[in-house]
Design brief:
With 151 residues, the protein is an all-alpha fold. 71% of the residues lie in helices and 3% in strands. β1 and β2 form a beta hairpin. The model has no long low-confidence stretch (mean pLDDT 92).
Length: 151
């Protein structure tokens, strides 16, 4: 393709997707690992304590029932770590992006329910990045386990 051409090349799309994949993978993985931390220590007991506190706060200040906040909170960190690692490593990237994006939609819903507008905006930006990554996923050239392409 001509250097003076203004249309993006396949390499441009591959580079754009790789940047999004790295950012979203790292962001999702770190967000999951943070759930296991308290006082610079990582453990399952910290996770249980942190997530019980979050679930209780959301249930107390929103219309979402306690059983739903508890179920979401107790699985949240594990889902974020799994999807973050999968995105980062390129393991079933399309599925990992889609389901990781759904987790962020769930986080956004929880923040909407407690009327945390600024947090909703930040989560909304994350969801937008997941959506853009999904539109560029066909340019995923560096993956451990490739996806089957949608027709």
């Amino acid at each position: 393709m001509n250097e003076n051409s203004s249309s993006p090349t396949r390499c441009d799309y591959t580079a754009a997707f790789l940047l999004l994949r790295l950012f979203l993978g790292l962001r999702t993985l770190i967000a999951g690992l943070e759930k296991f931390e308290a006082n610079k220590s990582f453990s399952f007991s910290n996770y249980t304590e942190n997530m019980n506190r979050v679930a209780t706060a959301i249930a107390n200040y929103s219309i979402i029932p306690g059983w739903a906040t508890q179920a979401f909170a107790m699985s949240l960190g594990f889902l974020l770590v799994i999807f973050g690692a999968a995105i980062l490593l390129g393991i079933k990237t399309r599925a990992a992006l889609f389901f990781g994006g759904l987790v962020y939609v769930g986080l956004g819903f929880g923040l909407m329910a407690v009327q945390e507008g600024e947090g909703v905006a930040w989560i909304g930006m994350q969801v937008l990045m997941f959506a853009v990554a999904l539109t560029l996923v066909r340019n995923n050239r560096f993956a451990l386990v490739a996806d089957k392409h949608c027709a």
